[in-house]
Amino acid sequence: MSLVASILMALLLDRLLGEPKRFHPLVGFGRLASAIERVWNTTDAGRAAGRGTGVFAWSLAVIPLVLLAYSVNLWTEQYAVISVILGGVVLYLAIGWQSLIEHGIAVSNPLAAGDLDSARHAVGMIVSRDTSQSDETAIASAATESVLENGADAIFSAIFWFCLLGIPGVVLYRLSNTLDAMWGYKNSRFLSFGWAAARIDDLLNYLPARLTALSYALAGKTRIAVSCWQAQAVTWKSPNAGPVMAAGAGAINVSLGGAAIYHGELQQRPPLGPNRDSGETPSAQGIERACMLVNRALGLWVLVIVILAGVLAWL
Question: Within 13 Å of residue 310, how many CA atoms lie on the same side as its CB?
Answer without folding.
Answer: 6
